[in-house]
Design goal:
The structure is a homodimer of 781-residue chains. Chain A has 781 residues and is an alpha+beta fold. The first copy, chain A, has three domains: 7-308, Beta-galactosidase, Chain A, domain 5 (Distorted Sandwich); 314-695, Glycosyltransferase, CATH 1.50.10.10; 696-763, Maltose phosphorylase, domain 3. In chain A, the strands form nine sheets. A ten-stranded antiparallel sheet of chain A has the order 1-2-10-11-12-13-20-17-16-15. The first copy, chain A, has a five-stranded antiparallel sheet with strand order 9-8-14-19-18, with no helix packed on it. In chain A, strand 30 (719-725) and strand 31 form a beta hairpin. In chain A, helix 4 (321-338) packs across helix 18 and helix 16 packs antiparallel against helix 17. The longest helix of chain A has 38 residues, at 276-313. Chains A and B meet through helix 13 of A and helix 13 of B. Chains A, B: Pfam families: Glyco_hydro_65C, Glyco_hydro_65m, Glyco_hydro_65N. Chains A, B: Residues 761-781 are annotated as: Disordered. Chains A, B: It comes from Nocardia acididurans. Chains A, B: Residues 328-680 form the Glycoside hydrolase family 65 central catalytic domain.
Chain lengths: 781, 781
């Protein structure tokens, strides 16, 4: 029998789950998902069942759904988008002497699955005894190729452990697989039950292709499989296809001690424009290339790709092996979400599950792209190119809502607004400044002129135009932005939200700077000097409400005058509050779902003095309940900046284990990619004190007592650098590229070939703020 | 042929439509609706077709419908209610020599319909020539009895005008009549198509009964008919019933110059508790009583009832016959909406159409009950008893939303919240203060101790408790009410809305006063002296935001800092704005849908100085677009108070003709009962300057140049008085009851048997404010 209790094992470069726990299946399927940002496979078992939530996703491939309203309103989106579980190619069913291999039956004698962060594969090792006592070992390894984005592959081996066995293996492509519908929602069911309409099916030898399209969104896709079989006995092979199923069947009598090894190659493609024959050809070409490359070479390319990634992106932690693992797990999944999206969005859940309907939000620009910009800059640029490709839709949306410039959607797959609740959807216009911020940050970090020409200037200009129209000067000349919603979704439709206003200010200034830098582009976009002057003026006179009496900024105008939420009277079971209190009550009280002003202090660090940051952090931290996974990382970063290192560590732990320990009880529907990215932000922005929103990279490293050493790498303007932090000092090393100017705790220095070691100034201790009653950061047992 | 162009004719005591205009049918059906507040019949033709929107309504009889949301939220109501078109008993079909009488065919030689405000009947006189040229005169008269609330009756006469004619008359009860579904909404259709399930059908002689129940709300109803037939020839009569149809058929050969007269008696009943046999018995008893009373006596009782009503409620206008008619039309429909509701709501559309799903809103308490309180006090008391009967639901709703006391629904038929858009639904908590205001106003006007004991104190206490919990003291001790929505639905979720805060203040004080007056009731309700002290304190320290710079109150905190709506750039076709702009844009600008602060100045007159009222009125009038029919009357009242008499007259005209001239293009779905009530408010509150929110009735009469004389009557504490206003003076007369103290333009006087004539002080003229570009008050051609 299995000799370990089910759960994750700690290891620096892999995530291993040892033992069988069917209850945990839903979340392990998300955690063990493989993806390259274009194609995603949830970590389901090859046998197809037992399964929590089957999932095979193609980035950008969605079905439409009707968005209904009890009371209609002008400008409400009527059609939403929802990610589709496409044709499943992961399935390899096994029959042992006529008994289906199903881990719910028989006995599982060994079982282990390993997600390897360096090989980029998911491995499995299972020893199973059938209900009648026949024992087999099953090993599998699968990958979704980072280098060949249309290709995935699975190596599957079966070994009889107690003498000869009759084995039958069925390798499937299965379309319209039944999926559980969240909340039993009948409207969602209407969109998601049998979403694929069969267009074409063909098979020969050990290969097959199925082509389908979606009923309403009319997107076309094709999936293909081909196989290599190694078995000592002479197998009996057949293949057949139906509309929604292609099946290769292999029957073999395998002698004890021998094994059957099947290598399955998968190719996927989709398009809104290309025909079914073209898609079929595309998939068959991908398969042919994958077969030609072969399993071993695919593995090698995968490892090379990851070696490069880690050389730029690795974070090392001494003193907490679990955290070391969690941080690499996080980086691995951020890479998987963004690596090869190529002009598609990076959804909030990546391609790990159907949560949030597969939509992308502001999370991408604010949490994920800052990480990718410093680790896989190309991927960050591609994600911003996706935004740019939706600019016409955003301009149309702005016109529809009576605004200037562009209004990007709050949530979307295809660029159209998909939010069905406008007060924290459409009204959360900060998404536009967030996109501009990510654009400016990317430009500063990469100096990618092609991107600037193709996309960057236009993104900055069109978002700046929105702010110029949205704000207005009051009678004292202050530039106000009224009636918008900031990041904190427990407030809505507020005036002069500091986060929004400061981000808009940055947006206006970056647009003005871009136009000054690129007068050619400015001319093309019809930007006149008067318009730029208005942007500068709006930015300079931006309202930033401050409560003199309390000595803190106001999250938005009047916020500090609201009644404080009664945290002491709120039971732990009442969280997340939005499931137990009406918005009516939440909006009118001082209670914060997720960092808002605190996030402004991170993203616009120069808009606050150190004293203000300290007072603001303490004031707002005591109100922030972290009902969103986007909060802990920001709180960690600012806690570190204002000197609460132990609290920063606690928030870091919460961010790092959000998915691994399923802190929000919804990992089954997919990982929180932004929170995973936030884990990196905790290390680099938090304990590294890195700020990259200007022309110089700034560091202010400081280690919490709980860690012995923290080292991270990053890319910046063609360099690669490493920063290694201990309690006393930080060592900066240039791994690649020309020397550059950096700042360490306010002191400028030049980093050239020789590493530079600088002392870390002592911290004068300050008592940490009280966190809301019952909402202490997560602590591991 | 008809010798008048189709349209209304002016007449002081009736509304006559002369000529045939099938295009106008939808709205005339609403305008000619008959109702006693319990049973309502739309003014459709007896023949059943042509028809705009068939409608027979029983107050409180509804079907449930699902309220869907694109994104769900805590506390959102999931089940809504919608008024049902019940079994139609109005139908009397006629066949003339085998040709169906249908005004779309043949020729209409004469056609006239008259709603008589004194007889309380709808009369019709039609001369019709069939396609083959046979000519008949059809006269009908119908009533819904004010005295016998379950009974309606129709007298129907056919007279051959060109020799003998074979006539067939079919008198029907028809259930599940097809109705057009607004906007083709499939969810509404699901609730409203075939809403009635047949339970029972029986017939004998010329009578029949059908009993049904609703599918989801499980309410039961029965409708019965019986007939008296007068015809010289020997008729051939038969009756038959099916599940959804009962039909009495009369065939007779009527000689020229003779006539066939059918008197149809209808009885209706519904219940959520009584069984089908009990309902059948109830309906048959009502029918028997109606038949026993007989047509002539029913007519007489109807006239007596109305004579009494007009003796208390009549308004006379000299100098504008159209307005005279419009005001009586308005009063007649207000009476019809409220007369015999008897512990049911008064819906926004009365029982004249299916608009707003048949829901009641705050309109009832704020606009309709002030009129009924002074004209049919019993009906006002009954409507408040309905609110009281829903108190348990309101308490439960308050608990659900984390509030104290009671939270009444924004819209409802049965007392449960039916609003599917919370920012201007649930968040418009002022409805609770409006109910308290109507309660206090009713108590002051009637001194109805039984009501006070049964309902009044409890209504005041439970609503006061809501405010005590909803508000909070800020650090300077000011009592704030944050994040609520006032009457103006182009603003939402604002802080310290002046209307809400002042109405809450009144609510808290009235509750405290009621508890002081009735310690027995206070004790029963568990009100401790401490609680009362908190109410008084909250009221005394209530926040009432004021902009010192502009010298005006703020509609809500910060409102005057918003950008002003660009009225000049708004096309006339862009109104109502809510159909052409998103809430996002409306909420963040200075633009007002309907009187808000101006309504506060009317309902809480002592909270403002005369100067403040004048400045506030001018400031806010220039922002108010009147996209709601609830606005013009309030603006008229305040315009009169601050001395803009000509503007007041214009708003009065707009209010008076809102339905008759279909100014909001939706009269087809029912009349705007609150706006009709507002017509009375214009006369009495506006030009009469009457204020009844204290212990003394206050008047400040002043006539606009456009009128020669205005006289109105009202009831107050057992008295009936008449006030007659001319340009120079006002005469006060006591028509019934003991002498009383009144105030005339700030001067107290005693009104006893002798009429008192007092001069009207001269008005110093002041320029009227500019109304929003393109939104001048309605003017008649």
């Amino acid at each position: 029998m299995i000799d370990c209790s089910p759960g994750f094992e700690t290891s620096p470069w892999e995530l291993r789950w040892c033992g069988l726990d069917l209850e945990a299946m839903h979340r392990t399927e998300s955690i063990f998902a493989l993806s390259n940002g274009h194609l995603g496979l949830r970590g389901t078992f090859e046998e197809g069942e037992p399964v929590g939530l089957p999932g095979t996703y193609l980035n950008g491939f969605y079905e439409k759904r009707r968005l209904p309203y009890a009371e209609a309103g002008y400008g409400y989106p009527e059609v939403g988008q929802t990610i589709v579980n496409v044709t499943d190619g992961k399935i390899i069913r096994l029959f042992v002497e006529d008994e289906p291999m199903d881990m719910r039956y028989g006995k599982c004698l060994e079982h282990e699955r390993t997600l390897d962060f360096r090989s980029g594969t998911l491995r499995r090792n299972t020893v199973w005894s059938s209900p009648t006592g026949r024992v087999v070992r099953i090993r599998s390894e699968r990958l979704v190729s980072f280098t060949d984005r249309a290709v995935a592959a699975i190596r599957y081996e079966v070994e009889p452990l107690d003498g000869d066995l009759d084995l039958v293996v069925q390798s499937d492509l299965l379309a319209n697989e039944p999926v559980p519908i969240p909340g039993g929602d009948p409207r969602l069911a209407a969109a998601l039950e049998q979403p694929l309409v069969a267009d074409f099916a063909a098979a020969h030898d050990l290969s097959a292709v199925l082509a389908h399209h979606t009923r309403r969104s009319e997107l076309r896709m094709a999936a293909g499989m081909d196989h290599e079989l190694e078995v000592s006995a002479t197998p009996r092979c057949s293949v057949r296809v139906e509309d929604d199923l292609a099946r290769v069947t292999i029957a073999a009598d395998v002698p004890g001690g021998q094994r059957l090894r099947l290598t399955k190659f998968l190719g996927y493609g989709w398009s809104s424009r290309r025909s079914t024959p073209a898609l079929r050809a595309q998939v068959e070409a991908a398969l042919a290339a994958g077969m030609e490359t072969g399993w071993d070479a695919l593995l090698r390319r995968q490892r090379d790709y990851l070696d490069q990634f880690w050389a730029t992106a690795d974070v090392e932690i001494d003193g907490d092996p679990e955290l070391q693992q969690a941080v690499r797990f996080a980086l691995f999944h951020v890479l998987q979400a963004g690596a090869r999206g190529e002009s598609r969005a990076i959804p909030a859940k990546g391609l790990t599950g159907p949560g949030y309907d597969g939509h992308a939000f502001w999370d991408t620009e604010t949490f994920v792209l800052p990480v990718l910009t410093c680790t896989v800059p190309l991927a960050a640029g591609q994600a911003l190119r996706w935004r740019h490709s939706t600019l016409d839709l955003a301009r149309r949306r702005a016109r529809e809502l009576g605004q200037s410039g562009a209004m990007f959607p709050w949530r979307s797959i295809n660029g159209e607004e998909g939010s069905g609740y406008w007060p924290t959807g459409t009204a959360a216009v900060h998404v536009n400044a967030d996109i501009a911020d990510a654009t400016a940050r990317y430009l500063a970090a990469t100096q990618d002129e092609e991107f600037e020409t193709d996309c960057g200037v236009e993104l900055l200009v069109e978002t700046a135009r929105l702010w110029a129209g949205l704000g207005h000067h009051n009678s004292s000349g202050v530039f106000r932005i009224d009636g918008v919603t900031g990041p904190d979704e427990y407030s809505a439709l507020a005036d002069n939200n500091v986060f929004t206003n400061l981000m808009a200010q940055r947006n206006l200034r970056e647009a003005a700077a871009a136009c000054a830098r690129r007068p050619d582009m400015a001319g093309k976009l019809g930007v006149e000097p008067d318009e730029i002057a208005r942007w500068r003026d709006g930015a300079d006179r931006m309202a930033v409400p401050y409560n003199d009496k309390l000595g803190v900024h106001e999250q938005s105008e009047g916020f500090t005058r609201y009644a404080r939420w009664d945290f002491a009277a709120t039971a732990p079971t009442s969280y997340p509050l939005l499931l137990n209190y009406p918005y009516f009550e939440l909006y009118r009280k001082q209670v914060i779902k997720q960092a808002d002003l605190t996030l402004a202090m991170y993203l616009c660090p120069t808009a606050f003095t150190a004293d203000q940051k300290a007072r603001n952090f303490d004031y707002y931290d005591a109100l922030t309940v972290r009902d969103s996974s986007l909060s802990a990382c920001t709180q960690a970063v600012l806690a570190a900046e204002v000197g609460h290192l132990s609290l920063a560590f606690d928030y870091f732990v919460e961010a790092a284990f959000t998915d691994l320990h399923d802190l929000h009880h919804n990992v089954a529907h997919g990982l929180h990619i932004a929170s995973l990215a936030g884990t990196w932000l905790c290390c680099v922005g938090g304990f590294g004190g890195m700020r990259d929103c200007g022309d110089t990279l700034i560091f202010a490293p400081r280690l919490p007592d709980q860690l012995d050493r923290l080292s991270f790498r990053m890319a910046w303007r063609g360099r690669r650098i490493r920063v290694e932090i201990t309690a006393e000092s930080a060592e900066y090393a240039l791994l690649e590229g020309d020397s550059l100017e950096l700042t360490h705790h306010g002191r400028d220095f030049t980093l050239a070939e020789q590493p530079v070691t600088l002392p870390i100034p002592r911290l004068s201790s300050r008592p940490a703020p009280e966190v809301p009653h019952g909402r202490r950061p997560y602590r591991r047992l």
